[in-house]
Amino acid sequence: MKIGAILFLAMLFALPAPGEAQTGRLEQIRQKGVITLGYIDGAAPFSFVGEDKQPQGYSVDLCREIAVGIRAQLKLPGLETRWVALTIQNRLEAVRTGRVDLECSTTTWTLSRQAEVDFSLITFVDGGSILTKSGAGGGRLLDFDGKRVAVISGTTTEKVLREGLAQRSIKAEVVTVKSRAEGLKLLEASKVDGFASDRTTLISLAASAQASGTFKLLDEDFSIEPYALALPRGDHDFRLAVNRVLARLYRTNDIVGIYNRWLGKLGPPSLLLSATYFVQGLSE
User: Which residue, among 249, 243, 232, has the nearest Cα to 73 in the 3D structure?
Assistant: First the structure.
């Protein structure tokens, strides 16, 4: 073999593989001195803007804890936390394109979404339900035959709602909206008969209504919604750093303080959520 060919092969094998050539998210955070977190307004009690114009909520607090953990891991006491407002429609794209490092709201972990982004440990377990006016009859999905149900477009709730209606041969009209505020407004104006979303979010909407007892929820859930934090796909070190903080919160029961701060008024964690915390409290 000629010397030139040998040198070429030596250089070729010395080159890093495509995945190795890419800078991991932790190193990017170290170089920039900033961790960028995405949030969604109007998703109380998980993610919303408070009176101080800063993001607040259960998921937001989890991400703040993660930022503290990464700051300690990278030994960067001056690491800045930067918040970026997102929408339900663009949140996964923001993670996929690197606009944010981590998305902190109410994203349900599904296999189809995992083709675009990765997910942290499960942060909450909810279920899909429908909010109706308190004077409306019935409390089951079957009672919406011939009626109109609003739901936010592009969500897992929309997908599961349509599937549930089709499986049970319920002829209800699905009206898509862009936000929870829009769905609630349609319901208040009686332009729809119900607004479908995650049960905990609907409870918060009902609790914030001006008139007490204005709304009620279905007696049944039509889906299970495991929430997790969306992060860049394939970045194992960053995912480990995120999960290390979450596992510590679950293992030490520090998660209880965060839960009580934002969800305590709804009662203690369900047996399913308590089991989720317990199983994911991984040891170091």
Answer: 243
Q: Which residue has the higher pLDDT, 134 or 37?
A: 37
Q: In terms of Cα–Cα distance, which of 88, 108, 112 is closest to 38?
A: 88
Rounded to two decimals, the pTM is 0.80
C-alpha angle with apex 197: 111 to 215, nearest 5 degrees? 165
Number of domains in the chain: 2
Nearest to 107 by CA among 47, 37, 162, 179: 47
Q: How far is CA 152 from CA 12, 44, 149, 180, in A?
A: 50, 15, 10, 7
Report the distance separating Cα 156 and Cα 246, nearest Å.
24
Distance CA 43, CA 150 (A): 16
Structure confidence at residue 216 as a pLDDT band (50, 70, 90): confident
> In angstroms, rounded to a whole number, what is the distance separating the alpha carbons of residues 65 and 245?
7
Mean pLDDT, residues 175-188? 92
**CATH number (domain holding residue 232):** 3.40.190.10
16 domain residue, yes or no: no
